[in-house]
Design goal:
108 residues
């Protein structure tokens, strides 16, 4: 009986599939977080009209993004009215995304 007849995948194929799925998950997770950071930045620049659902959206973005940005603000304080932490945070996430996906694919 062949591999296809028994329904079992070879170990290397299963491992490669796991690495691919894990790499895709990391890539998607960090991409979504970067998009949330962009939404947080835009809503902090624009004064939105008061609507309960907009207030909830802004609160959600604040609760999700601000803890990460506070870590960066400890090391890079705002320069006058200019806060560089979102830009540094996005660049850091892109670097982390590429490092993790390369590491996952190299190890598995």
């Amino acid at each position: 009986m062949g591999v296809l007849a028994t329904g079992l995948l070879p170990a290397s194929g299963l491992l490669a599939d796991t690495a691919s799925a894990l790499s895709q998950f990391v890539w998607t997770f960090i991409t979504v977080y970067i998009l949330l950071l962009f939404a947080y930045i835009i809503t902090s620049w624009v004064r939105l009209p008061y609507r309960p659902w907009l207030n909830r959206l802004q609160r959600f973005l604040y609760d999700v993004c601000d803890p990460y940005l506070r870590i960066i603000r400890r090391f890079v304080p705002p320069i006058g009215p200019l806060d560089l932490s979102p830009m540094i945070g996005v660049i850091g996430l892109i670097v982390l995304q590429r490092l993790l996906t390369a590491l996952i694919e190299a190890l598995l």
